[in-house]
Design goal:
Layout (H helix, E strand, L loop, with lengths): L1 H5 L4 H32 L6 E6 L5 H10 L4 E6 L6 H11 L3 E4 L2 E3 L3 E5 L33 E7 H9 L4 E6 L5 H11 L7 E5 L9 H17 L4 E5 L1
Parallel strand pairs: 1-2, 1-7, 2-3, 4-6, 7-8, 8-9
Antiparallel strand pairs: 5-6
Helix pairs in contact: 6-7
């Protein structure tokens, strides 16, 4: 009897597991509903739309979002600074057609050359989805390996948005830049360039940081979210 009782799972652990699974599916279907709604509203017009995939990696985000936004009046700009990903993205963009353009650079608050971390085997390898110009991006999991960091080009995203706003009626941005999004968004807000974005899908990453960075970054994320929700930008928190 005692053996049978001890073999039963811990109820609290079971509930945590169920809650985690529920949250995963809730976020998945909520995000799908957002994108379905956003894309249908935005593409009712015949005016040109630009979809910016900032942090493309191997094109996973572009392939998913383009099933909703389509290609009729939507052009795509894919940004990825990791040169190990470029051969895959070259092939993807070539097959996708002329309305898809690859920028072999990252996006940031300023033009320049920056160190790019997260590509060692211990950090995910050369095609890691966790590569970043922010050395603290995954500090709860590992210390950035500076010996394996590479130099990458980064463009001033605010200047880019101003240039593209003269060509497109609406700009949609998917921002997944592994921890650097906080610095970038604070810069866009300070210059007013965030107002050039119609819809913003952003993934925050403070939960991958060690304390005290995690709490400090979380507070910055919340301030950014509050500002964007009070602006003309349609803000969508992504996971």
């Amino acid at each position: 009897m005692n053996n049978a009782t001890s073999a039963l799972p811990d109820p609290a652990r079971v509930m945590r597991g169920l809650h985690k699974r529920f949250e995963k599916y809730r976020r998945k279907y909520t995000e799908q509903a957002y994108v379905w709604f956003d894309s249908n509203v935005l593409t009712r017009s015949t005016k040109p739309v630009l979809f910016v995939d900032a942090g493309s990696n191997l094109g996973q985000g572009f392939q998913w979002f383009s099933t909703y936004y389509g290609h009729d009046q939507v052009s795509y700009h894919l940004f990825e600074p990791n040169p190990n990903c470029h051969p895959y993205l070259d092939k993807l963009t070539h097959e996708a057609g002329t309305d898809v353009q690859l920028y072999k650079s990252g996006v940031g608050a300023a033009d320049g050359t920056f160190q790019f971390f997260g590509l060692s085997e211990a950090e995910g390898g050369e095609l890691s989805q966790g590569g970043s110009i922010n050395p603290q991006h995954n500090s709860d999991l590992y210390a950035a390996d500076t010996d394996n960091a590479i130099n990458v080009d980064v463009i001033n995203f605010g200047d880019y948005l101003k240039e593209q706003s003269a060509k497109y009626q609406s700009i949609v941005v998917k921002l997944d830049v592994e921890g650097e999004e906080v610095n970038l968004l604070e810069h866009l807000i300070s210059t007013g360039a965030h107002e050039l974005i119609s819809i913003l899908y952003v993934e925050f990453h403070s939960h991958f940081q060690a304390e005290p960075e995690r709490s400090a970054t979380k507070a910055r994320e919340q301030a950014i979210e509050n500002t964007l929700r009070a602006s003309t930008v349609k803000f969508r928190l992504w996971h």
